[in-house]
Amino acid sequence: MTLPTGVERHDFDGETSLATQGQPVYGERTDGDWRRWDPHRSKLGAMLEHGMDTGLDGDETVLYLGAAAGTTVSHVADFSGPTYAVEFAPRPVRELLDAAESRRNLFPLLKDARKPERYAHVVEPVDVVVQDVATRGQARVATLNKRFLSDDGRLLAAIKARSEDVTADPDAVFDSVREELSSAYELLETARLDPYHEDHLGIVARPRDD
Amino acid sequence: MSNGWFAGLDPDDDAAAVEQIAAGRADAPEDWPVQAVETGFADDEADYYDRLHEVTMAATGAAVAEQEGADDQQLVHAVRAMADCERTANELAERVAEWGGSRHGDSGSGVEYARSLADRDDEDEGDRALRALAEQTADLADEADSLRTYIERTAPAVAPNLSMLAGPVLAARLVSLAGGLEALAKKPSGTVQVLGAEDALFAHLKGNAPSPKHGVIFTHEYVRGTRREDRGSAARALAGKLSIAARIDHYSGDRRPELQAELDERIERIQARAEEGDE
């Protein structure tokens, strides 16, 4: 698997890790310009670490749903083109604003990912939708946001089993999410994100024609 | 006609741009950068993205400040004011009913009776005095309702998880009884369980009463809707989840929808005991 341009395995005092170049955001280890991208703190980082074929080359236009405090989206903005970061909760957005301060290509939006019509007047069609929303109905969020993806775009989603149903077996949850998702998307690859994130499923998918 | 955030904007009017980011909408995305250049809003794509960065930073900063401005102390004031209005409206309604009964003999009761008197035609000075009091009573009840609406709108912004589990009004009552969200977050769940039952708790501590099983959380359907012998368990389970929710709301602000599912499942198991017969 090749990493997107702008992401590399970098040596931090003898420990090799994914890294991008940019202003540090959350106290991560740095070496010059390079900042460590910790797969334990980032589901997309874990997907790359697992060698999933994300289709990312670098320089894509990205819509990131569930940006939270900006940990992952700051790395994404480091190697991507225009990056739209949607987050619903005001508190983490304060930190997201700090991360966006030094990144001219990062556009923070305090919006609800379940209501895409509230940000479609700002977000342009994108090459990649990254989704990490810990809410019930994650497949529905992905389906609602399909409108932003270009025909050959990619959905990179991390599905959290416990957000759908804490009592159900994660495998059963993932089966039903996969099934619901496949009416709108063709699933290219799925993988559990252990050991970095328990009970999370990483998904790479392509939008189906309407 | 474009629905882009920049449509119809003067490129120098930052305030209007911020407003459009916040309030605008479109069904589907379009190639906004190209449209912005074509309509002359931006000189080129780089200029467009520069403006977009400035404007989204400002709009999102303002939206965060506004939502966080609905802070816990405002919520405490609102819920206490609502309780005052309700209590006073009820007291006055009793007075109106007593007075009305002496004049008309058709005395009803409560705020609804006061409302019916407020619409009545005056016969003499006594009627006018009674009607004026009835109107005040109805107005106070209306004020309580509008405070409730305000609480329902703001509590989810202040304490999203607590409001999800408890409902916005009970969430606001708990924050008020504790004295603030931080104070609530620091209380053990056993204390949350009996907030609002302080009289019963102190009677118990003096040694002449049983320990209270629940305080204000009794108003939650999961406590009230559980049969008497299992209410203590239900109240303990609910209080446990509410204090976790309050801590998440205070310390992180994340939304954790799974808390609801966890609570539902706990209560379901407790309520199932009634069907299984006594243990």
From TrEMBL, chain A:
The lineage of its organism: Archaea, Methanobacteriati, Methanobacteriota, Stenosarchaea group, Halobacteria. Gene3D superfamilies: Vaccinia Virus protein VP39. InterPro entries: Fibrillarin (IPR000692), Fibrillarin_CS (IPR020813), SAM-dependent_MTases_sf (IPR029063). Involved in pre-rRNA and tRNA processing. Utilizes the methyl donor S-adenosyl-L-methionine to catalyze the site-specific 2'-hydroxyl methylation of ribose moieties in rRNA and tRNA. Site specificity is provided by a guide RNA that base pairs with the substrate. Methylation occurs at a characteristic distance from the sequence involved in base pairing with the guide RNA. Keywords: Methyltransferase, RNA-binding, rRNA processing, Transferase, tRNA processing. It is an enzyme of class 2 (transferase). One of its GO terms (molecular function) is histone H2AQ104 methyltransferase activity. It comes from Haloarcula mannanilytica. S-adenosyl-L-methionine binds at T71, T72, E87, F88, D112, A113, D132, V133, A134, T135. This is Fibrillarin-like rRNA/tRNA 2'-O-methyltransferase. GO terms for biological process: box C/D sno(s)RNA 3'-end processing; tRNA processing. SMART domains: Fibrillarin. Pfam families: Fibrillarin. The keyword Signal does not apply. Its EC number is 2.1.1.-. Residues 1-33 are annotated as: Disordered. Belongs to the methyltransferase superfamily. Fibrillarin family. Interacts with nop5. Component of box C/D small ribonucleoprotein (sRNP) particles that contain rpl7ae, FlpA and nop5, plus a guide RNA. It comes from the Archaea.
TrEMBL record, chain B:
GO terms for molecular function: snoRNA binding. Residues 158-272 form the Nop domain. It comes from the Archaea. GO terms for cellular component: box C/D methylation guide snoRNP complex. InterPro entries: Helix_hairpin_bin_sf, Nop56/Nop58, Nop_C, Nop_dom, Nop_dom_sf. Pfam families: Nop (PF01798). This is Nucleolar. It comes from Haloarcula mannanilytica. The lineage of its organism: Archaea, Methanobacteriati, Methanobacteriota, Stenosarchaea group, Halobacteria.
